[in-house]
Specification:
Layout: H1 5-56, H2 64-69, H3 74-79, H4 83-99, H5 101-160, H6 165-170, H7 175-182
Helix pairs in contact: 1-5, 4-5
Length: about 210
């Protein structure tokens, strides 16, 4: 017996939304990787500047010229990420152009370009994460809507066939799948991880 139209429509919507969530999950992973790459490239550029700055001050990290460029040290700078690191890099570029113009001539433009790339990658990754979170929430709602409709169908059939639960249950051969959906933890927050296996289809095992 085919599902009643409301349940069939909900099932089709759930399957379509499941595919949407998979797509947004892949996008979140990819944009996160691009953000990691942008962070790595900016860190490497900062390390290059530090090596040259150390050469200028005879490897004396207490020298005023070095402290002006790296007031908190290189380790703190590269530990930052996104806009927080970009602000520090922009400050360093300004200081470099004022106090070490030769260093600035070689590295200022590259640092600013990489900083701009970092800002763009951070925004793209944030947008992708938001898209995944919204797709995840919509899928969860559709899952519970489908379960609720199936329960209504079961109640209606129980009224039509009172006292014959075996017959009523025969209309729902995939009950174990419904139970799995109902018992799915609500704490499954949208934190798609790189390399994670894709979740099972909502109709798997049917």
């Amino acid at each position: 017996m085919a599902l009643a139209p409301p349940a069939s429509e909900l099932g089709a919507s759930l399957k379509a939304q499941w595919h949407v969530r998979l797509e947004t999950s892949e996008r979140e992973v990819m944009t996160g990787a691009l953000l990691d790459r942008a962070d790595y490239e900016l860190d490497q550029a900062c390390r290059t500047v530090e090596l040259e700055a150390l050469a200028l001050v005879g490897k004396d990290r207490s020298a005023p010229e070095y402290r002006a460029l790296f007031p908190d040290g290189l380790a703190v700078l590269v530990a930052l990420r996104g806009t927080a690191q970009v602000r520090k890099v922009e400050q360093m570029v300004g200081t470099m152009r004022e106090r070490a113009p030769d260093l600035g001539a070689r590295h200022a433009q590259t640092l600013l370009e990489l900083a701009s790339k970092m800002v763009a990658a951070e925004k793209t990754a944030a947008d992708a994460h938001q898209g995944y979170a919204e797709a995840f929430a919509k899928e969860r709602l559709l899952r519970f809507d489908l379960v609720r409709q199936l329960r209504r169908n079961e109640g209606a059939l129980t009224t039509v066939y009172p006292g014959n639960r075996a017959l009523v249950r025969s209309f729902f051969p995939r009950r174990r799948v419904r139970a799995a959906v109902e018992s799915a933890p609500l704490t499954n927050e949208p934190t798609a991880a790189a390399g994670a296996a894709p979740p099972a289809s909502p109709t798997a095992g049917a």
